Task: structure prediction
Amino acid sequence: MQPSLQTCPCQINPASTSVGSTPLSYQDCCQPYHDAFYNDKIDQVDGMSAETAERLMRSRYSAFVLVKPDYIVKTTVPAQQALLDVQSIESWAKETDWAGLEIVKHTPKLGKRHAQVEFKAYFKTPNELQTHHELSAFVKVKSKADNDARWYFLDPTVAMTITQKQPCICGSGEKFKRCCGGYI
Result:
């Protein structure tokens, strides 16, 4: 199987009734983001980065479908990465029969550096099509090394011991409660 010749996983939407638009191939959609990540050092996210939170959401969904757990981890806000269980992510990705993605709403600007993507990820069970409906938060973080900014997912399932008055996990310099605390 060559994913580059097929429809990108993030372009498959089982809830869509529209007929006019042609879905993008993996090669023309999420593959450049995945390839840029995997062609560079695995311990850093270099190369091509998502321009919007929605684009990052789509590339993360495709990474789940194509079982790329390292991409999932490295596109999560850096302060949470070490707290993620890569093997669990990989197992869940492999065990799920993914059926498609629907972007319900993208709110590209919440405050200075945050965005939200409401989505439905569809998956098959032996009896029916199921839906995971989520409102995800993203933060745009500037790198101190190259002053480049990139989007990261804020994972609300990660147990963190941080108080509202501590510096934010995204490195903005603001207190957690005034920054990412409102979205996690």
About this structure: Residues 41-45 have pLDDT under 50 and may be disordered. The two ends are 38 Å apart (CA to CA). Residues 3-157 form a domain with the Nuclear Transport Factor 2; Chain: A, fold (CATH 3.10.450.50).
